[in-house]
Predict the structure.
Amino acid sequence: MKQLSFITELFTESVIREMTRICDSKDGLNLSQGFPDFDSPPDIKEAACSAIRMNLNQYPVTFGEPELRNAISKKALWYNKMSVDPEKEITVTCGATEAMIATLKAIINQGDEVIIFEPFYENYGADTILSGAKPRYVTLRPPNWDFDHDELTKAFNNKTKAIIINTPNNPTGKVFSTNDLEKIVELCLKWDVIAVTDEIYEHIIYDSIQHLSIASFPEMRNRTVTINSISKTYSVTGWRIGWAIAAEDISARIRKVHDFLTVGAPTPFQHAAVSALNFPKDYYDSLTEKYTELRDQLFHILTNNGFKSYLPQGAYYILADYSNLQRIMQSESDFDFSVKLLEKTGVASVPGSSFFSSGSDSGLIRFAFCKKKETIDKVEMLFQNKLLT
Ligand code: PLP
């Protein structure tokens, strides 16, 4: 048989999804994958059922139902200070996941380079390779996950086509500051580079820190693709509704790629997403309040059990350094630590190496806290007397 796709040998399967499978096989408590274990808001569940009953069950408008594009445009103006033409500048996709690969396929030529901050959400590496570009990594350093401006400056060159930003960030919890974004803007303008920004956690942000969209800088308006979805903000990761906002010329190409990749995102869930995007401001306030409590609770549990954790500014993950526990667990790598932790305590996490290009031992593991309070209470019980003794 002729050789199968060579490019697919350049990345691995998702370790996050693999950890979920291992967790399920051991009947563990899944703090690995970022999906809520609590109910989605009842109003949008009803809106989805109602859309199905109203027979909105056939192919949607390929690039998104008009009602949803209007709702996205309205919310982008309110929350992101972005003025967006729903007719020409929005493409509704199957989650942020499809928005990212469709965007990269739409803008990349063979040999282009894409800058990615590391550690990074694992899809970005694979998406960059699948689109034919070479990833170039810039390090985010603990404890604040800052990047070195000189290192970023050196990463830009004539081949740089795009830079991927993820704010609030998975897995570090970093929220890119005005200063961070100004530096990125300066370099994007200098090197004629497109910013591709994944803002899926824009409402999960703590301690009164403000989310800032790079597309709201006037000079970036036409050179930014802003990606988002309803998965995290409205706790419906299985509905697969996301979108990409970009200037007309970029959107036209994203729409073409999207059309041939998936035709469209699920029609009834697009209609339900309209009601989600119209939620009052209180909804977002209570989301922040709920996640702040869960973050603080898990942070304390981890600290009390010997982990050195980094308190996130946003998103719903905690990265934890397990060096104090390595001897007790006798682990040989972060993957091994993660599996042993699951075997010993029943709590599943993700090895930090899955967020680094080298894939080698990072000394870190990631816990997701988008879970019921009772689930996090259970973590405390499961850890009790098993780690530091
Ligand atoms: N982007 C980031 C940073 C994520 O963490 C995730 C899921 O964990 C996704 C995208 C996937 O988004 P969606 O469910 O909309 O495809």
Q: What stands out?
A: The mean pLDDT is 96. The chain has two domains: 6-40+282-387, 58-277.
